[in-house]
Specification:
It contains five helices and five strands, in the order αβαβαβαβαβ. It is an alpha/beta fold. The chain has a single domain, classed as 3-Layer(aba) Sandwich (Hypothetical Protein Ychn, Chain: A), CATH 3.40.1260.10. Helix 3 links the parallel strand 2 and strand 3.
């Protein structure tokens, strides 16, 4: 029984390590990569404007730009009247919108109502630190 348990743990850890290294290879560290952590949907307006300006300024050196939304107002992301314009502008500016799964769970937001264009991560704060370790410039609002 112990052998099966330890074998399973080793296999899972091997898969996790393989997946982690795959994710790391998709980030071009020679480019300017950005991450912003925000707690309020209306802040997406100036964040996306900033992403658009940086994309123009950086030119071919513009890499990834991710915006992590977390906190007690996370439920606002399920309101299509608030989100549809932000989602369209984010897509045009190559900005990835990310929902914090921890916040979604804590504030009992129906995960099925999260816009399909958004990525969901288990823990937004941890994800932010992981991106910083990969060289992303970070800002929290």
């Amino acid at each position: 029984m112990k052998t099966i348990f330890y074998s399973t743990v080793v296999i899972v850890m091997t898969l996790f390590t393989s997946c982690s290294s795959l994710a790391q290879t998709t980030i071009d560290t020679n480019k300017n990569n950005y991450v912003v952590l925000t707690k309020k949907v209306p802040q997406l307006e100036p964040i996306i404007l900033t992403a658009e300006a940086l994309k123009d300024e950086d030119g071919s050196n513009f890499g990834q730009f991710e915006v992590i939304i977390c906190g007690k107002e996370i439920g606002d992301i399920t309101d299509s009247s608030k989100m549809k314009d932000f989602i369209a502008r984010a897509e045009n500016a190559n900005v990835q919108l990310v929902a914090c799964g921890f916040s979604l769970n804590k504030f009992k937001v129906d995960i099925t109502k999260v816009p399909k264009e958004m990525k969901t991560v288990e823990n937004g704060i941890l994800y932010n630190f992981q991106l910083q370790k990969k060289g992303f410039k970070s800002l929290s609002l």
